[in-house]
Amino acid sequence: MPYPTLLERFLSYVRIDTQSSEQSETFPSTAKQRSLALLLSDELLKLGLKDASVNPWGYVLATLETNRRKKPPTIALIAHLDTSPDVSGTDVVPCIHENYDGRDISFAGNGAMALKVDDNPYLREKIGKTIITSDGSTLLGADDKAGIAEIMATLTFFIEHPKVPRPTIRVVFTPDEETGRGVEHLTVEEIGADYGYTVDGEKVGDVDQETFCADSMEIRIRGVNVHPGMAKNKLVNAIKIAAQIIGKLPKGKMSPETTWKREGYVHPHHVAGNVEEATIKFLIRDFADSGLKAKEVFIQKVVDDVMSLHPKAKSDVKVIESYRNMKLILDQHPIVLRMAEKAVRQSGLKSRRAIIRGGTDGARLSFMGLPTPNLFTGGNNFHSKHEWIALEDMEKAAEVLIHLLQVWAKK
């Protein structure tokens, strides 16, 4: 019986809801991520990776041994199981648009929405290709189920072509990458590789060498709650203080919606509370650690200035480190990027070293001792109901992985 195709695998994976949660204190943050983990473990066993398993923390780990007499470096291929907490991943209906004609794409499940070419000019390069979207009621889940499907297709190729040179391949599928906790319960020793590659990028040909430096800030405000009918000169409303803090953020700069390329930002992404207590959560991002710290000092000053107007209220500000720019580590291991670029060129593509306005598991793994750049999947508009991917780009991503592993095998 033939193995499933790349497309068949991808469509089966996106239909499984694996949305993670930033509010959960468990790991994985949602139990439903384990459904995909168990499916993948079973598929890996059927491919012949006899050690495939799901460990107690929900990581999928497996090994395909080298077929070389003199063992080359061991390479880890890494992708994540979860989808973004920001957009529903429940009951995803993937829609296939064959022989794309270059026009706006309507969403079957959301008549008020369309994938517009003017907003997605990259679509013009995909005329005649097969475009995959959701029906518009959910995200698609190409982030990062495209990466998972591409890794599975790569493994299938080497199983079907046992004489093609390959290194020992370690397969790692992680939960909770989207919450920044993807490698929280994983060690480099458990991965057991010399170098790694996350398959979690976007445009064809990209080899991502940089991520943001990232922290979170949590501001807790404690007001004074009194019956509103008796509140004269007594009540201090924590909700209003939170609104004042947010209101003092710059209007035309330093936010996700006003920055691009190498510009960092501060991003209030969660507000909750009542009169007595309110909490604001910020994402702080910059490509340099110094820029990150400057933004944190700025937020602290905003909080101090607003709190000085409310002497009866109190505040706590907590900074939580997330990850740092992986370029600091990758610069010390240039071979891991050079090998990826060689594989991209061997696939007939133009290689481009790119930056990620975000993070990957590879950023933290690099600082843990496993140099891990990020490779493209072909996906677009991640974390959005407008998410889309071309099947041909997914096939190209798998081709790059196949060349990459052959390049390492001959090292």
Helix and strand arrangement:
Layout: H1 6-14, H2 33-47, E1 53-54, E2 60-64, E3 75-80, E4 95-97, E5 105-107, E6 110-115, E7 131-133, H3 142-160, E8 169-174, H4 188-191, E9 195-201, E10 206-210, E11 213-222, H5 238-247, E12 265-273, E13 277-286, H6 289-307, E14 314-323, H7 327-330, H8 334-346, E15 352-355, H9 361-368, E16 374-376, E17 379-380, E18 388-390, H10 391-409
Parallel strand pairs: 3-8, 3-9, 9-16, 10-15
Antiparallel strand pairs: 1-2, 2-8, 4-7, 5-6, 7-18, 10-16, 11-13, 11-14, 12-13, 17-18
Helix pairs in contact: 1-3, 3-10, 8-10
Description:
This protein is an alpha+beta fold. Helix content is 29%, strand content 24%. It folds into two domains: 6-211 and 325-409, Zn peptidases (Aminopeptidase, 3-Layer(aba) Sandwich), CATH 3.40.630.10; 221-320, Alpha-Beta Plaits (2-Layer Sandwich). The chain contains ten helices and 18 strands. An eight-stranded mixed β-sheet has the order 1-2-8-3-9-16-10-15, sandwiched between helices. Strands 4-7-18-17 form a four-stranded antiparallel β-sheet. Strands 12-13-11-14 form a four-stranded antiparallel β-sheet, with helices on one face. The protein starts with 5 loop residues before the first helix and ends with a helix. The relative contact order is 0.18.
The secondary-structure element order is HHEEEEEEEHEHEEEHEEHEHHEHEEEH
Query: Would you give the CATH topology of the largest domain?
Result: Aminopeptidase
The value of Rg in angstroms is 23 Å
β-strand amount = 15-25%
What general outline do the C-alpha atoms trace?
Answer: globular
